[in-house]
């Protein structure tokens, strides 16, 4: 299991729970796993799919994601295909053939396939080792994404009694969990409920004043990174997106008012790193499989904690640090309260109010954000300081409000703990309402003690007291405010009452997991990834994750052995992209010798010691064979599915070893171009390829330079 994890996926270790799940599946046991987004669910079924005889059928609700998932599996060398309505007849035929010939490890299908009797017959003959059901909460009416199609999956156990069934979800309350297990009819499944903690996410709440400018400032500090900005209404999405576009940010809008085509287009450009930012309503959700979302910003207060958790959860799936910032202004509370008032059912109203209270408390409480968020899911966070939230990092200011708190609580106490927030605030400011006269509350000692502040101020103190459990609202008695034991201690002067106010925003102060990598090299590696991705028509993260590029920019690997030590590089990717990226790293080292020297002392954690010489030799010889047939650089690269950079490197090697004496540079590259490159070398010397490329106005590539240089060197 570990050997294959390293060989295929290029990962050093399992993430929490993955190992147990893979083991269970290797024993063909049913599995039910609740893991947060980014927990690494796909590996849990892809690894056993590769190791077990027979086929793994993956059921996934989103047609739009299947292709990316299959591309990602293929990039790791797995035999994967998908079947859905987007395939042409010819493509479908090809997939069915592969199925019949038992050539597949993985087949991704949409749930509606299971309602098709022919498909069942085909599967019966396909030797299914196990089924993996993604987004399994879609089968439950209790969940927030119920899909009637999913109900047909409850037949799997009956039709395929010998195959195991593994169900995965990221969103399950205990009620939904039980429902999934029973609807699917799982047989004594291996149960996993992972922690919902996402240690690589930095949580922060900042005061909102001029949102658009604040967003722009954030984006300026995070140039080149991908992220999502959530806003509540279509109108605000449009206006923020427009503002950012005017400021030169590559931002796109996403909301349910756009046509499905527009939505898909915008999502695709985001996936492909063509747009950096999507400004979206919560309609932008499940379809995001992008692993390198570096920030999620909330321009408005979310409606509830569950939503906030899911939305921020889209950041940092690759395990690299990501930033979650909520811009908060108390006027948002008023806006949400207004909508709650419109609700008709009293039960719904009560739930909505409770949810609002929880999220306000998250934003305002003088306590670790992470602890608060996990507490919502019934999880206890044990550490005192999470080190990755603004409160724990001391990015907030603490203000003593003991006296104000005592004034409020004294009013509550003296009026008999029978009144709600509005009336209590009225007492403290000394308002002359009818109710006050009626109750004779103008006779209370606390009447008017808070005249120096307005009512809004006192409402805020009440909210703060509620948020810190000093007061509670008696739900059975008109939301009357009552003192808790903690509140009483403050009233009696035995404890102080502090609230937090956010300081002016600073840059998040925590170091990345990959620490001190070279930004410049990272940028170059990223543009190469972008170029390759465009060529192969896949999203960039299918080629390498940000994590992988960052490790490269940290360790500067320049041999295949070192390269395979980098997280996320298994055999298939090493073979396909290793040379290309090593070339860039080599060039970079050449141009920054001091930096290169510093890095030389860092050791890439070696995963497998295995000589790759033989294979490399073979792949270079394959290139030679094509070159001997008189093909051009471009054509060879196309035929071999390797980049031009790699092919030119092969040719360089061949020439160095004296094997390419019969090759003609003009066959590989147009004569005109070759002459231009030679002239560029003569003008600028051979030291900096980057300079030459810039001087040429980007009309020549590294691959071409490398090729011509190799021939020039041979001749000289
Ligand atoms: P989920 O479906 O649970 O949201 P994914 O399967 O998309 O998560 O995985 C999230 C990211 O984590 C991917 O980039 C994946 O390559 C990476 N990943 C998964 N398992 C590991 C591991 N054991 N070590 C390092 N990275 C991993
Ligand atoms: Zn914290």
Protein described:
The structure is a single chain. Helix 25 (571-591) packs across helix 29 (644-656). The chain is of the alpha/beta class and 716 residues long. The chain is globular. It contains 33 helices and 17 strands. Residues 11, 14-15, 18, 35, 37-43, 291, 317-319, 545, 567 line the site of adenosine-5'-diphosphate.
Estimate the helix proportion, in percent: 40-55%
Q: Which ligands does the model contain, each kind named once?
A: adenosine-5'-diphosphate, zinc ion
| CATH T-level topology of the largest domain | Rossmann fold
Beta-strand content estimate? 5-15%
Mean pLDDT: 88
Characteristic key phrases:
716 residues; alpha/beta; Rossmann fold; Arc Repressor Mutant, subunit A; 5 domains; seven-stranded parallel sheet; six-stranded parallel sheet; 49% helix; globular; binds adenosine-5'-diphosphate; binds zinc ion
């Amino acid at each position: 299991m570990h050997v294959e994890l390293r060989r295929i996926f290029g990962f050093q270790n399992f993430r929490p729970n993955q190992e147990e799940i893979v083991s269970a599946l290797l024993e063909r046991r049913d599995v039910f796993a609740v893991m947060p987004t980014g927990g690494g669910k796909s590996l849990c079924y892809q690894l056993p799919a590769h190791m077990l005889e027979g086929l793994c059928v993956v059921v996934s609700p989103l047609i739009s994601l299947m292709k990316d998932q299959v591309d990602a599996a293929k990039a790791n060398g797995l035999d994967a295909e998908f079947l859905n309505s987007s395939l042409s007849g010819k493509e479908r035929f090809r997939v069915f053939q592969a199925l019949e010939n038992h050539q597949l490890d993985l087949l991704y299908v949409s749930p509606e396939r299971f309602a098709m009797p022919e498909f069942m017959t085909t599967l019966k003959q396909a030797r299914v080792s196990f089924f993996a059901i993604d987004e399994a909460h879609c089968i439950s009416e209790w969940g927030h994404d119920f899909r009637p199609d999913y109900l047909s999956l409850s037949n799997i156990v009956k039709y395929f009694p010998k195959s195991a069934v593994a169900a995965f979800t990221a969103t399950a309350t205990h009620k939904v969990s039980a429902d999934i297990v029973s609807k699917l009819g799982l047989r004594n499944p291996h149960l996993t409920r992972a922690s919902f903690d996402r240690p690589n996410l930095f949580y922060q709440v900042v005061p909102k004043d001029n949102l658009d400018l604040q967003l722009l400032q954030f984006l300026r500090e995070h140039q080149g990174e991908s992220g999502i900005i959530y806003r509540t209404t279509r109108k605000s999405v449009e206006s923020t997106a427009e503002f950012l576009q005017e400021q030169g940010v590559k931002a796109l809008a996403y909301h349910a008012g756009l046509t499905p085509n527009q939505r898909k287009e915008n999502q695709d450009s985001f996936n492909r790193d063509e747009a950096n930012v999507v400004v979206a309503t919560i309609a932008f959700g499940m379809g995001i499989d992008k692993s390198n979302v570096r920030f999620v910003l909330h321009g408005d207060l979310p409606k509830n904690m569950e939503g906030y958790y899911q939305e921020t959860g889209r950041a940092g799936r690759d395990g690299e640090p990501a930033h979650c910032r909520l811009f908060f202004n108390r006027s948002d509370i008023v806006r949400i309260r207004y909508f709650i008032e419109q609700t008709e059912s009293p039960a719904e109203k009560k739930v909505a109010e409770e949810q609002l209270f929880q999220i306000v408390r998250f934003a305002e409480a003088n306590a670790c954000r992470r602890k608060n968020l996990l507490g919502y899911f019934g999880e206890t966070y044990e550490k005192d300081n999470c080190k990755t939230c603004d409160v724990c990092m001391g990015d907030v200011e603490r203000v003593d409000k003991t006296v104000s708190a005592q004034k409020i609580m004294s009013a509550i106490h003296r009026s008999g703990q029978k009144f709600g927030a509005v009336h209590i605030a009225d007492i403290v400011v000394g308002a002359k309402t009818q109710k006050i006269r009626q109750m004779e509350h103008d006779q209370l000692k606390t009447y008017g003690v808070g005249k120096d502040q307005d009512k809004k101020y006192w409402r805020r103190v009440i909210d703060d007291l509620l948020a810190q459990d000093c007061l509670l609202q008696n739900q059975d008695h008109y939301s009357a405010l009552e003192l808790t034991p903690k509140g009483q201690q403050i009233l009696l002067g035995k404890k102080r009452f502090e609230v937090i106010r956010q300081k002016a925003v600073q840059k998040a102060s925590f170091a990345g997991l990959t620490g001190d990598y070279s930004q410049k090299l990272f940028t170059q590696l990223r543009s190469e990834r972008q170029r390759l991705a465009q060529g192969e028509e896949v999203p960039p993260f299918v080629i390498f994750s940000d994590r992988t590029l960052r490790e490269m920019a940290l360790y500067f690997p320049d041999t295949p052995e070192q390269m395979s030590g980098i997280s996320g590089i298994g055999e298939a990717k090493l073979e396909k992209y290793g040379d290309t990226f090593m070339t860039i790293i080599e060039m970079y080292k050449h141009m920054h010798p001091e930096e290169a020297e510093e890095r030389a002392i860092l050791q890439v954690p070696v995963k497998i010691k295995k000589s790759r010489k033989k294979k490399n030799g073979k792949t270079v010889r394959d290139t030679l064979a094509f070159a001997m047939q008189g093909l051009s650089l471009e054509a060879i690269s196309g035929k071999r599915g390797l980049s031009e950079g790699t092919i030119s490197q092969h040719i360089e090697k061949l020439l160095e070893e004296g094997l390419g004496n019969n090759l003609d540079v003009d066959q590989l590259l147009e004569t005109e171009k070759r002459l231009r490159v030679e002239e560029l070398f003569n003008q600028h010397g051979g030291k900096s390829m980057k300079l030459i490329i810039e001087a040429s106005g980007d009309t020549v590539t590294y691959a071409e330079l490398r090729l011509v240089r190799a021939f020039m060197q041979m001749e000289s």
